[in-house]
Recover the amino acids of this structure.
């Protein structure tokens, strides 16, 4: 017959016995206590994982731009790019005399319609995006205000002239 050692009196007791026959130590208390210890460790692990996820989420959200505003300022002859983050605001200014051209792009990388300025050193700065509205008129206005040439580009396959309002040519 299989036996087990009593933790209280160290006597051999049958393995199936719920109590020690010598000191009446209750073995069922030990069996019930064991899962509680594992459950507590699991609960603490879950709480630690939730804290890490919360910290990562806070870090990700706080680093993202909350609001971006672009103003074409005729008075100062510049374009002002303002980005507000949760903890600070960044401002960048591009003067009109630093711009070589204004681009309007159909089928751009960020949206269906993009308007961007290209600086003399080749940097491209997006000033407006739209998935719904043809921005060609807006780009023409910006080019006229800045007295810069307008460059029309189509990066979408199957689309003709940008003056079609974003519609595919009839087939």
């Amino acid at each position: 017959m299989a036996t087990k050692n009593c933790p209280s009196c160290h006597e051999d007791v049958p393995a199936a016995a719920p109590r020690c026959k010598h000191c009446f130590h209750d073995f069922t208390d030990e069996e019930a206590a064991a899962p509680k210890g594992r459950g507590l460790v699991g609960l603490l692990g879950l709480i630690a994982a939730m804290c890490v996820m919360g910290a990562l989420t806070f870090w990700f959200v706080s680093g993202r731009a909350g609001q971006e505003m672009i103003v074409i300022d005729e008075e100062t002859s510049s374009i002002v790019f303002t980005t507000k983050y949760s903890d600070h605001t960044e401002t960048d200014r591009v003067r009109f005399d630093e711009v070589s051209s204004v681009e309007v792009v159909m089928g751009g990388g960020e949206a269906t319609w993009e308007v961007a300025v290209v600086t003399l050193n080749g940097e491209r700065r997006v000033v407006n995006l739209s998935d719904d509205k043809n921005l060609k008129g807006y780009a023409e206005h910006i080019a006229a205000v800045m007295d810069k040439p307008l460059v029309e580009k189509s990066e979408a396959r199957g689309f003709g002239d940008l003056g079609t309002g974003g519609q595919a040519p009839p087939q």
Q: What stands out?
A: Confidence is low (pLDDT under 50) at residues 158-171. The longest helix spans residues 27-63.
